[in-house]
Amino acid sequence: MTARQVIFSGKVQGVGFRYHTKELALGFEVVGWVKNLRDGTVELQVMGQKAEVDEFLSEIIEESELAPLIRNHLVTEIELLEGCKEFRIAN
What's the pTM? Predict the structure, then answer.
């Protein structure tokens, strides 16, 4: 099991980024959340088996319709997400 935080910058707010990310997550065995930050970036925290997390992030960053909107992303390993049972949009 692994957990990662990703901060996305670019044109990532006001374009359905969080909703599309949540829909993509349904195709993977991952849990976590995604939310807008005040500085105009989007934060994602995701947990699952390493291969699932890797494939999910690759889908977002390289293959999805979100990819052209992302100018930069910073991935950080984090502690496992306690009590997280689904993937959701956080406030």
Answer: 0.93
